[in-house]
Structure formats: structure tokens, C-alpha cells
């Protein structure tokens, strides 16, 4: 594989100043995952930059010092998939009321709607 060309979309860490806009929390969660984004909220800007640099190194699959659109897409897919699996595991416990490792329609209705039905 060769070096990225000038025409290829790429991002270089630290090349531009990041501006937080109203939707930045969504971006942070998509990029880092919900739990990781929450932990970043507690960090100083210096600590945040350091940890983000380590994450960027993990995203840069071909270790060329640049992030391509494809590398970012792959990373976000991995983070989202991990969040989905973790969320299903947490929610499953709430819905499987009789702990038989199956969710019956009655259990689902009870867990979702409670006393309304």
C-alpha cells in the first residue's frame, strides 16, 4: 500500500482546531461509544487530547499517520456494534423476568409497559 494521495479524504490529528457545536455529544458517542464519551467529559483538555491520540493510533489501521474515511467508518462501526451488544446484555436482564434465558411476549409487555396493561 502506498501513501495517501492529496485527493484522498483524510484527517490528521491536531491539524485543525475542533469546535464543539450543539451536536458534539452525539459525535463523541458515535466516535468513542457512550461510556467512553462520558469518561472523556471528566477529563481535562490535556488528558482528553492524550487519550484521544491513543485512540487515533488504534484507528489508523495501516499506521501511516493519517486517518482515512474508511478507517473512521470501520472504527465507528466497531464502537456501535460493541455498544449494541453491551446494551442488549443489560436490557435482557430487565426483560427476562423469569430468568429462563427467553423473553416471552408477556414478559416484554410487563417490562416495557409495566402496570399499564
End-to-end separation: 60 Å
Please write the string of helix (H) and strand (E) elements.
Answer: EHHHEHH
- Number of discrete helical segments: 5
Task: Let me know the number of strands.
Answer: 2
Poorly predicted runs: none
Helix fraction? 55-70%
Q: Classify the beta-strand content into a percent band.
A: under 5%
As laid out across the biggest beta sheet, the strand order is 1-2
Q: How does the helix and strand content classify structurally?
A: mainly alpha
Global outline: elongated
Q: Biggest β-sheet, characterized?
A: 2 strands, antiparallel
**Assembly type of the shown chains?**
single chain
User: On the 0-100 scale, what is the average pLDDT?
Assistant: 79
Gyration radius from CA atoms, angstroms: 20 Å
List keywords for this structure.
117 residues; two-stranded antiparallel sheet; mainly alpha; elongated; single chain; 5 helices
Quick take:
By secondary structure, this protein is mainly alpha-helical.
What does it look like?
There is one protein chain. With about 120 residues, the protein is mainly α. Helices cover about 60% and strands about 5% of the residues. The chain has 5 helices and 2 strands, in the order E-H-H-H-E-H-H. The protein has helices at about 25-30, 35-40, 45-60, 70-95, 105-115; strands spanning about 10, 65-70. Strands 1-2 form a two-stranded antiparallel ribbon. The longest helix is centred in the last third of the chain and has 27 residues, at about 70-95.
Amino acid at each position: 500500500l502506498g501513501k495517501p494521495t492529496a485527493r484522498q479524504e483524510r484527517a490528521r490529528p491536531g491539524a485543525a482546531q475542533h469546535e464543539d457545536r450543539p451536536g458534539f455529544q452525539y459525535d463523541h458517542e458515535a466516535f468513542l461509544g457512550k461510556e467512553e464519551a462520558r469518561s472523556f467529559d471528566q477529563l481535562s483538555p490535556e488528558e482528553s487530547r492524550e487519550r484521544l491520540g491513543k485512540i487515533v493510533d488504534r484507528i489508523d489501521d495501516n499506521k501511516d499517520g493519517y486517518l482515512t474515511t474508511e478507517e473512521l467508518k470501520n472504527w465507528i462501526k466497531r464502537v456501535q456494534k460493541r455498544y449494541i451488544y453491551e446494551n442488549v446484555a443489560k436490557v435482557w436482564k430487565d426483560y427476562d423476568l423469569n430468568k429462563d434465558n427467553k423473553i416471552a411476549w408477556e414478559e416484554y409487555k410487563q417490562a416495557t409497559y409495566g402496570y399499564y396493561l
